[in-house]
Amino acid sequence: MKRILTIVLVVIFLPQIVQATRIKDIASFDGVRDNQLIGYGLVIGLNGSGDSDQTKFPVQSLTNLLERSGVTINRADITVKNIAAVMVTANLPPMSKQGTRLDVLVSSLGDAKSLAGGTLIMTPLKGGDGQVYAVAQGPVSTSSFSYGGQAGSAQKNHPTAGRVPEGALVERELPYALTNRSQLRLNLHRPDFTTASRVASVINGKFQSAIAVCTDPGSVTLTLPEKYQGNTVEFAAALESLQVRPDMVAKVVLNERTGTIVIGNDVRLATVAVAHGNLTLTIKETPQVSQPEPFSRGGETVVVPRTDLKVKEDKGGGLFVLKEGASIGEVVKALNAIGVTPRDLIGIMQAIKAAGALQGELEII
Fold first, then answer.
1. Which residues, in sequence order, are CB contacts of 226 under 8 Å at separation 6+?
2. Among residues 135, 138, 134, which one has the least CA distance to residue 115?
3. How many Å apart are CA 219 and CA 54, to the nearest integer?
4. N or C: which end of the chain has fewer CB within 10 A?
5. Domain boundaries, the chain
6. φ and ψ at 213, to 5 degrees?
7. How far apart are CA 212 and CA 162, in angstroms?
8. Which secondary structure element, helix H or strand E, spans residue 354, and what is its range?
9. How many whole angstroms separate alpha carbon 173 and alpha carbon 176?
10. Where are the alpha helices (H) located in 218-285, listed in sequence order?
11. What pLDDT digit, counting tens, does each position of 305-363 carry?
């Protein structure tokens, strides 16, 4: 029976006019980026699903917290199961102001069974420079549950990690000033010589002046026109909306775990002949037990091995020739003709690349 090739995802790029996209979607201004924050905290109010006594640091953290609150207690006297030590992470967006709220991610550090129903108490969040930029606190939402007994258990989703929506308040602003700057730099998300050149050309055409210069494939240096001196924000807004057609490398991406295949429209093949067939080997072990008759005076029980072996080789579609310069549509049509599955195609593409006939990159993820 002829099998039909099913490619899970094939990316076929539209004509050049439709490919145009805004500069703000393919590049960002130097220094305008997210910053990662991290902090150590405690989640309290758990229903017996917190860290056990074998995890020492949550108890130590609770002792320190109580001492700061004016309660002196011996660490050895604390045996609680309704607290859990967690790491709290968040992203600080650029230009965030004091009082801006951030979502935070809470992840268990110890052996807690669930964070459902818990409350994160005040946790300072620090940046890479060690400074505190935000403080997080609030109820933890896990969208999960985990219950069990001695003979069984039930669990939904992942109960030892959750979120606190808008649970952090920004306390310190990142120092970044756009005003009074005579130059800016655009950093491309995907460095490429052709794309950088097109960005500079579009910007120079818009402002009727050579204000954009490509310094390398990953960035474009901008000199503010006189009309925008002291008004950098308006210049950036006018620049971000410009349309550019980004260029990209011809690439085939294969995911062996899921059988997903992504083939770019610019991928081409040199002349190559392809033949593909499957060999199926089935081995089935069915041991049989031979034992003495009832009330017999001698003999012993013996296990007799029995093996069934079957070999099946598909004929496939024979040898098929893919002509030089074949487009993605022609490649798919030809591979359909020899009846391959997505997982078969992964092996075929690897073999074509090894033969030097694939004109593009092959990436396996």
1. none
2. 138
3. 52
4. N
5. 21-32+178-244, 35-170, 251-364
6. -130, 130
7. 45
8. helix 342-354
9. 9
10. 232-240
11. 776 666 565 655 555 666 665 666 676 666 666 667 777 777 778 888 888 877 788 88
